[in-house]
Amino acid sequence: MVIAISDSYSQSPYFHTSEIDILGKMDRVNCIEQRTDHFILIGTSAGLLRYDGIEFYKFKTSKTDHDFTAILEDKSGTVWTGTNNGMIMKLNGDSLISYSLFNSTGNTYPITQIIEDKKNTIWISTYGNGIFRIINDSIVHLNESSGLPDLYIYTLINSASGNLLAGSDVGIQIINLAEKDSYKIESVTSANGLPDNIVRTMAANEDGSVWIGTHSKGVTLFDPVTKTFSTPEIARNWNFGTITSILPLKEEVWIGTSRNGIINLGYGKEESLQNYNSINGLHDDRILHLFQDMEGNILIAGNSNKLGKTNKKFTFIDIHENVSFKNILAITGDSKGNIWFSNNSGLFKHNIVFNGNHEMEIPLRNSDHKKHTIISLIEDSEGFIWAGTFDNGALRIDPVTKDVLRFDI
């Protein structure tokens, strides 16, 4: 297995920041969700917003603004929202209406998550008052008397096993949904291999495994069927602090932290670790939520009144292996998955993946043409690279043998 930790300054996505001008300077973005109509819903410390990619709209509430901490659009299209003072509200047109059935329970603890299970049951987790189940306008409260060992729930997700997973201060709580009215709750803790009993966030992979983000021991991958853990080697000596949000992507996972921006962890055949922070253009080093929309954009909630956005299709590379990517004169890609580019220092070749596991090549290093200025590049049908020079003809480069032929008038 190849492992690399890349220089965080050499490459990064392009981070675009939108200041939400309808919020105050001290307000913050807490959570993000997307509706089936493609509008983005944003829960903030000063209300619920709708975002169409250009403008922000603030939904009306019956009284004062609320600090929104959780959002869900269920399968029927109903939007549920939860607040920091323990209220549940539903979206009705352009207004938020108090959900009296839940609010009459007297809960005042922060809502941390709202999810819907496979049977269309709504589950609500709180930080201090356990978990609530809502089905057919009836409420069941899961607390200590129900077998829940801790009432401080940070996160709640569905698992591929059909059960619910709750992250708490005493590990992962597996809520078995096999019974209709009672639930068997099983705890998975450090005694079972969990690196840290304080589980702050979780996110499911497409293969059914679950990323676990902890308070002080980084991330680990949990198999909810076998109840076993595996941690990528590169992430075993974690020194980036508390994890606040996890966004699984293809063969990598983006990890939001409480003080160190975003960690991009590549896993699989090639492990890599890159840190994106304010030096790379990120608007805040304290991340509260990461979310990927239907168009592939990654939306970032930091501890501010700004919304960050980036897209994995674009990566900015300023310098790599002490080679500057500024003042590029020519660039092309070949059929082997490499890019060739030239600048004032010469001609270079590198794998299209810049994660620290591939070395930069200098194709003309041992050639009489190494000082020529390359102003155009292209690959022909036979795999040769043609380089047009400034006042020194054209060069045909064999990528396999490294042979170079020069053509001139």
Defining key terms:
49% strand, 1 helix, 1% helix, 41 strands, 5-stranded mixed beta sheet, elongated, mainly beta, 409 residues
**Most strands sheet:** 5 strands, mixed
Please tell me the overall pLDDT.
91
**Strand-pairing-aware structural class:** mainly beta
Distance between the termini: 49 Å
Form type: elongated
Number of helices: 1
Structure overview:
- The protein has 409 residues and is mainly beta.
- 1% of the residues lie in helices and 49% in strands.
- The protein contains one helix and 41 strands.
- Strands 1-28-27-26-25 form a five-stranded mixed β-sheet, with no helix packed on it. It has a five-stranded mixed β-sheet with strand order 8-12-11-10-9.
- β39 (385-389) and β40 form a beta hairpin.
- The longest helix is centred in the N-terminal third of the chain and has 4 residues, at 100-103.
TL;DR of this structure?
The protein is an all-beta fold. A hairpin with a 2-residue loop joins strand 5 and strand 6 (47-51). The radius of gyration is 26 Å and the shape is elongated.
List the helices and strands and how they pair.
Blueprint: E1 2-5, E2 11-13, E3 16-19, E4 29-34, E5 40-44, E6 47-51, E7 56-58, E8 60-61, E9 68-73, E10 79-83, E11 88-92, E12 95-98, H1 100-103, E13 111-116, E14 122-126, E15 131-135, E16 138-142, E17 153-158, E18 164-168, E19 171-176, E20 184-188, E21 199-204, E22 210-214, E23 219-223, E24 228-230, E25 243-249, E26 252-257, E27 262-266, E28 270-276, E29 287-292, E30 297-302, E31 306-311, E32 315-317, E33 319-320, E34 323-324, E35 330-333, E36 338-343, E37 346-351, E38 374-379, E39 385-389, E40 394-397, E41 404-407
Parallel strand pairs: 1-28, 8-12
Antiparallel strand pairs: 2-32, 3-31, 4-5, 5-6, 6-7, 9-10, 10-11, 11-12, 13-14, 14-15, 15-16, 17-18, 18-19, 19-20, 21-22, 22-23, 23-24, 25-26, 26-27, 27-28, 29-30, 30-31, 33-34, 35-36, 36-37, 38-39, 39-40, 40-41
